[in-house]
Amino acid sequence: MVALWYEQGDVKRVSPQFRFQLQLTKHTPAERCPTMTSLPDSSADRLKEPLVSRKIEVGGRSKFELLDDLKRASILLNDFAIQLLESEYFPATTESRTVNTIELTVRRLGYASGATTRQIVDTAAEMGLVSCPIELGPYMRLQYLDQPEGAHGVPPQTGQAPSGSITLMSDSLTADDEFPKGFYLRRIDGVLWLRGYRSGPEHIWNPDDHLVFISI
28 forms bridges with which residues in the sheet? Predict the structure, then answer.
């Protein structure tokens, strides 16, 4: 059975009932990382693709405060994102910490023809990269406000990550494939989105899909 990327497109705004003061951390401009060498393929063309590093402050906000922050920043959510935020699997940590995120493509990991999640995670681990905590999603969305627009005129591909999206690679929260696997970020017609997605273990990521890990 082919594992597909599932996405819900319903426009969802955060409920206006929350009235907490907005406290956004100043966005740190993205910096290019030095080239990493522990890669499965030494293709010169692939190594030219950049690694992008961003420092993100995570934690210190309740779920209600996060939802209010997203609403005040005019960030939209799909049903899967709301399901993740409201679930028992999403922690509300009282202490904040800084994490160093690394954005790179599947091709940059050495997979010119795409790869499964397990292949990607295993190769990333060899580079000193680990999966993102699920709570990173809304914090990164709130601090990464200058995301480029998704590619215009590119037809959507059924069962694939949307063009221009950035997926935060997280460990599965449950064995149920019907439950969202994690978050991804998009900018659509000037509007910033925090979206959730579902996929099975056999899903093949495209070589140009952009993924985010944590650098350890």
Answer: none
